[in-house]
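If you are new to this repository, start here. Below is one unmodified record pulled from the training split, so you can see the exact layout before writing a loader.
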Amino acid sequence: MTDQNTAIHIALPDLIRLQADARALRLPGARQVKTRQAGLQRSPQRGRGMAFAEVRLYQPGDDIRSIDWRVTARRQSPHTKLYEEERERPILLICDLSPTLYFGSQGAYKQVRCAQLAGILAWLGLWAGDQVGGIVFSGQEILVRRPARRKKSVLQLLDALARFQHDPASGPVQPGTTQSHGLDIALQEARRVAHTGTRIFVLSDFLDVTGETSGLLGALNRHNRVSVLRIVDPLEQALPDSGRFAVAGPDGPVWFNGSDRRFQQAFADKVADHEQHIDHCFRTAGVLDQVISTRDDPAQSLRMILGPRGRIG
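And here is the target side for that same chain:
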C-alpha cells in the first residue's frame, strides 16, 4: 500500500485514494439478510439495529413475538416491547502528528501510518452514515473538526492530516519548537467536542504520555467508547544485535553500536519502563490499546481490529 514516495510523507490525493482500501474492508462477505421486525412499514431512517425503547400494553396488530412475558405475568395483562432504530453515532479521530512520529525504520514513517489509519477510518465511518470528525495536532498547531455527516468534512480532515505531517523538504525537525504535551491538549479538546456515545479513536505513538493522560482518557471513556491505536516502529522496541547504525535526530545523526551489550541492556530497560508506564496508563483509564507496527499494512491492521466486515462498532 505504501510506496517509496509515500513512506515518509503522504499527500492529500493519496489519502483520498484510501477509499479503495476502505471499500475492500467492507467487501467480504456475508450476505445481507432481511429479517422481519414488528411493524409493516420500512423505516426511512438509517440505523445500526433495533434498540429497546419501552414496554406498553398490548394493542391489536402488535407482533406477538414482541410480547414481554415477564411483564405480562407480573401485571396480569399482555404487554409489548417496543424498539426503535439506533441512530448513527459520531466518530472522533484524535490524530497525533507530533515530531516523534516523524520516524520510521521499516515500512513507513509513523506519521504516514497515523494518517493512513485515520483516513481509512474516516471513509468507513462516512459510508456507514456516521458523523465523522477529528482532532489533528502537531508540534505547532491543532485543528478541531466537529463530527458531521458530509464528505466535505472528511476531505477537510484528510487535508489537515496531509498538512500537519512534517514535510521532508522543510529539513530536519528543530529542537525546542514543539508544543509540550500535545496529546493532553488534544484529549482536553475531545472532552469539549465529543457528545455522549461518541466512538473515539486515539492514534498516537504515546511517547508524550504524562501524569494527566490517563485521567483525560478515563474521563472520555466514561461516556464514550474509546479505542487506542498505538503506532510503533520495530526499532523502538528492540535494537539490531550487531553493527553500527545511525538514527536521524534534531541535532543530526545519532550513532549506536548494536554489539555493545551495556548499551543494549540500557535500551531494553528503558523500553520496559516505558511499556510498563503505558500499560498502567491504559489500565487506569479503562481503555484497550491495539499496537500497530509501521511495517504492517494499515488496512490489514484495521481488518484485524474491526473484524471481517470493517464495522466501526
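Two things worth knowing about this chain: The longest strand covers residues 50-57. The chain has two domains: 4-26+88-306, 50-85.
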